[in-house]
Amino acid sequence: MKHVAIAILYQQGRYLMQLRDNIPGIVYPGYWAFFGGHIEPGETPEAAIVRELYEEIRYTPPEVKLFDRRIFPEITRNIFYAPLVVDLNDLVLGEGWDLALWTPEEIQQGRRYSEKAQQVRPMGTPHRQILLDFLDRVESSLC
Length: 143
Description:
- The chain is α+β, with helices and mostly antiparallel strands.
- It has helices at residues 45-57, 104-109, 125-137, 139-142; strands at 2-11, 14-19, 32-33, 35-38, 65-71, 75-83, 98-102, 111-114, 119-122.
- The protein has a single domain, classed as Nucleoside Triphosphate Pyrophosphohydrolase (Alpha-Beta Complex).
- The chain contains four helices and nine strands.
- Strands 1, 2, 3, 4, 5, 6 and 7 form a seven-stranded mixed sheet that branches. The protein has a two-stranded antiparallel ribbon with strand order 8-9.
């Protein structure tokens, strides 16, 4: 079974998503998804998400909190949330095609235009469901 750590990064009621590279053979190619990745042997989920965020966007959040852990036969998703306390332009995209801050309305729609891709791309189904659950359960406490 795979173990991953993923991050819901929030800023002023919007949520950072990565447009994954459109490369056949990767998980969710060309879809909007969370930043994050595999947990290395001996690594805690918390350490993994901090490492992944630095590798993927050169960002270290001031804190991460566990939102949920979703266990399926093929994968365990450790879902963290953290504030994005820098400007979007300060992030360095080291992995993926594009990044963007999504509004709750865009999350409901499940798709968004990408300047870099020059097209509307869908959000991965599990990623959308996780964000909808987050909006229902946590968002109001962030204000």
